[in-house]
Specification:
This protein folds into 2 domains: 112 residues, Phosphorylase Kinase, domain 1 (2-Layer Sandwich); 182 residues, Orthogonal Bundle (Transferase(Phosphotransferase), domain 1). It is α+β, with helices and mostly antiparallel strands. The protein has a 5-stranded antiparallel sheet with strand order 2-3-4-6-5. It has a 3-stranded antiparallel sheet with strand order 1-12-11.
């Protein structure tokens, strides 16, 4: 990592060679207000750092999610610009799709595909919801595929920077989609070192290896995997000052302690309770720990993560005991 400090207030260069959103993607405030019943409380799906999300129905009958940004916050306006930049350049089943946008001085919103089954967080932590082992495994694979695509399979690499259960959305068939790109970073393909700026009392320009950005997403991916199979939040009340989810899983991981960390709802079912199911949970938590290693270079690459998760799923489905 190379650090160069300077007193200059010059901003970092911004990519200007990307095409603007096509005009056909624009939609009026009136259309959105009508679709979401005036952005009423009854249509509110959730509140985020930079805005609120509402359910709406367009005149065509299409059900949508409308993400309305707080235009009085500079960071929210920047978040809107970032999401537009990212979403117009990516197309994959496991990423939330942008349908339309609405932008003027007083109002900024994204029209996104509606996810009927809401977020993974809802399914993990609501008492009246349950996900079996296979459903959880499929969700984890879906998100791994999404992150792999963002990092490696697109002309403009994207680092999500905020992978968590609340940003993992589920469609009717429980296929998972990664959403909320408000703090994402877009990386060019050519440079091995990426220039970024640290906010401090003096201007600091830092050059960071591209892999470090990718590895931050790998870490960010590993923690929700642990949450998915333990049903414990990363800041659960059971953890004191010296304990956290990752350390708790790591210290409890030997297979004979697996019962202490895996979601009790899974242990109470009779579904595939043989060694293959036990090994499946063990291998997934081991992989999650590798993803969240403290040293970035020790974290598993997302391409390898996808390959190993697919092997774990095959093992589970066929009842074998080895990956």
């Amino acid at each position: 990592m190379l650090v160069r400090c300077q007193n200059s207030k010059a901003e970092l260069p911004i990519q200007e060679n990307l095409p603007p959103l096509p005009e056909w993607r624009r939609i009026s405030y009136h259309d959105l207000a009508q679709a979401a019943d005036g952005f009423s409380q009854s249509n509110l799906l959730g509140v985020e750092s930079f805005g609120s999300v509402y359910k709406g129905t367009l005149s065509t009958g299409m059900t949508i999610a409308v993400k309305v940004f707080h235009v009085n916050q500079d960071r929210a306006v920047k978040s809107f610009d970032i999401e537009c930049e990212v979403l117009r350049n990516i197309r994959r089943r496991n990423l939330v799709k942008i349908i339309n946008s609405c932008s003027n001085v007083e109002f900024k919103a994204l029209v996104l595909e509606f996810m009927p089954n809401r977020s993974l967080e809802k399914w993990l932590y609501s008492q009246n919801h349950f996900l079996n082992v296979l459903q959880r495994l499929n969700i984890v694979i879906d998100i791994a595929l999404a992150v792999e695509y963002l990092h490696h399979d697109h002309s403009l690499s994207v680092v999500h920077c905020d992978i968590k259960p609340n940003n993992i959305l589920l469609e009717t068939e429980m296929v998972a989609h990664l959403g909320d790109f408000g703090i994402a970073k877009l990386l060019g393909k050519k440079d091995s070192m990426i220039q970024t700026k640290i906010l401090a009392t003096i201007g600091c320009i830092i050059w960071i290896r591209r892999d470090c950005f990718y590895k931050s997403d790998v870490y960010s991916f590993g923690i929700p995997v642990m949450e998915t199979f333990t049903r414990k939040k990363r800041a659960d009340d059971m953890f004191g000052e010296e304990m956290n989810l990752k350390r708790w899983v790591k210290e409890s991981l030997p297979s004979y302690y697996l019962v202490d960390v895996v979601d009790s709802k899974l242990l109470n079912t009779r579904e595939r309770e043989g060694l293959a199911a036990k090994d499946c949970k063990l291998f997934i938590l081991q992989l999650a720990l590798e993803c969240s290693a403290e040293v970035a270079e020790e974290r598993t690459d997302m391409e390898e993560v996808v390959a190993r998760l697919k092997k774990i799923k095959t093992m589970y489905l066929h009842g074998t005991e080895q990956v």
